[in-house]
Write a structure and sequence with these properties.
Elements: H1 4-9, H2 11-20, H3 28-65, H4 69-104, E1 125-130, H5 143-149, E2 153-154, H6 155-161, E3 168-169, H7 172-190, E4 194-196, E5 201-203, H8 204-209, E6 222-223, E7 228-230, H9 235-239, E8 245-248, E9 254-263, E10 282-292, H10 297-314, E11 319-323, E12 335-343, E13 348-359, H11 361-366, E14 368-371, E15 377-379, E16 381-389, H12 390-400, E17 407-408, H13 414-417, E18 421-422
Parallel strand pairs: 4-9, 8-14
Antiparallel strand pairs: 1-11, 2-3, 5-7, 6-7, 9-10, 10-16, 11-12, 12-13, 13-16, 14-15, 17-18
This protein binds one RNA strand through helix 3 and helix 4.
Length: 423
Amino acid sequence: MLQISVLKNNPEWVKQRLGVKNFKQINLVDEIIKLDDERKTIQLSYETAQAGINTASKEIGKLMAQGKKEEAETAKKQVATLKEQVTTSTEKLASIEKLLHDALVQLPNLPAKEVPIGKTPEENEIVRSGGTIPSLSENAVEHWFLLEKYKLANFELGNKITGSGFPVYTGNGAKLQRSLVQFFLDFNVNAGYHEYLPPFMVNEQSAFATGQLPDKEGQMYHVTEDKLYLIPTAEVPVTNVYRDTILKEEELPVKMTAYSPCFRREAGSYGKDVRGLNRVHQFEKVEIIQIVQPEKSYAVLEEMVAHVESLLNSLELPYRILRLCGGDMGFASAITYDFEVYSAAQKRWLEVSSVSNFEQFQTNRMKCRYKDSTGKTQLTHSLNGSSLALPRIVACLLENNQTDQGIVLPKALQPYFGKEMIQ
RNA sequence: GGAGAGAUGGCAGAGCGGUCGAUUGCGGCAGUCUUGAAAACUGUUGACUGUAAUAGGUCCGGGGGUUCGAAUCCCUCUCUCUCCGCCA
């Protein structure tokens, strides 16, 4: 959520930035400013009336103590008109605050100045790439055939038990998942991230704080009976660890990592984009999150990008890093780097991580603040990234490393898996 | 699921209609003493909003009500604890 002060200080700049994000309802900015001005006027009249009641009530208390009943009674009558004023302005205030909130919540985060202009994924900017794309033999096949060949995952079984998009991993497939999760967590913990195992369901407040609600309501599984949401990413429960807190400056940066399954409805997806592990409703992911001082967040963003990059290097996968254009960015993000790995049999790039700086967008919703060196409390910045999402990593590992003898695992993973190959 | 008790500032814990944004202790910060530290003593120490700065307003788990006035009374929700039941 943007701070109203940001809109008020520079409305034209805010509108220009929203334009970069391809946001349509630019007029909301002026509406919000107007609503806030109205709010102030009403608030002032409410507070003046309330102040009158407060002083009069104290006066009545004194009169009663002195036994001056008559005077107390007259004073009581005078309060009645003030009370009416309070009642009407309270009602007005409540309705205008709701309007204001509803409007403010619709505004996405402003894109940072480095964000390229553009509307579609084609306009994302390739920052750099690494690794080498393998040249596969002629009989190389896509990962969904390999999953079947080596009995690593069973989609039909998932269909029977739950529905499409819920693969059942079996044998070495299940073990590969476990090895990857363990490898990623160790890698993150070694880099100073504190490990969490969060709840896999969250309440409405938490989903709101990180920006899933109200924007992405349809993307989450909703347990209506208990008013809980299945998490689409560990970002949601883990970032909320610091909801409604005031941190000391020496506690920063907060570095957290967590494994969790992720549940996504992916409404409207179909076709070959979703074949195999390309897009599923439940998948495993390890996430990294940082909460930092505002002036440090862009340096930390680079650090997190480098961290994810070194993870991909250790998996020996060909990758590229994209800086997302305004139109392709998420609602809450100020800047996002996507990581894609090359799936050599499908001959396409697959997104495996997304590292974002949210600046104050989430922390303003969460009220996650810190006391700076001057003793002033101010909002922190939050950042997160995947490190990494498993299914597409598995897809690439299988496709890129397939040989006639079996799937060769990268060296870094071998101690975790216990073998050099899947056969 | 049943019965009872409770939710107050970083923590502990008073307050049970006006003098309470809140006694006190611990912790934190500053000072005195000391070569330094500890101890002791003294002072200070919540958040939000608002103002040029004052002032003013709001917050005692959340929401609603009674009253001129609510941390205190009533209703309701959530959560915690104790006992019973069920259970990995």
